[in-house]
User: What shape does this take?
Amino acid sequence: MNQYPQAQPTITFAGFRCRVGKRGEGLPTRREAETLAGLASGMTQKQIAKLRGVSPATIKSTVEAAYFRLHAQRATDAVAKAMRKGWIAPLMLALIVSTVSPQQPVQRVRQPVRVVRMQRREAEVMA
Assistant: This one.
């Protein structure tokens, strides 16, 4: 007879390790954990449904059940609460620390709008 408690079973989905359990154990079910991990990785409900091979309506009801269990209002709240409870955790924490070097210019995600062009267009319209 084993006197030590068994380790909680875990699964991996969408780059996250998820602890799972049965109903009533205080842990999410396998489906809820997969859905929360998908939301945490930035997937839409339709993408999660396609990956799991179920309908989007099934994912929607699973997400609503997870929201209810976590007392969450939206996906970001549910993911944050699930991480705090230890239900899901990223497999690899990627922290990007950028250093500005003289050889490499600072990159912007979106180029700034040039005001000069707008002023020229306004001048052409008025002329």
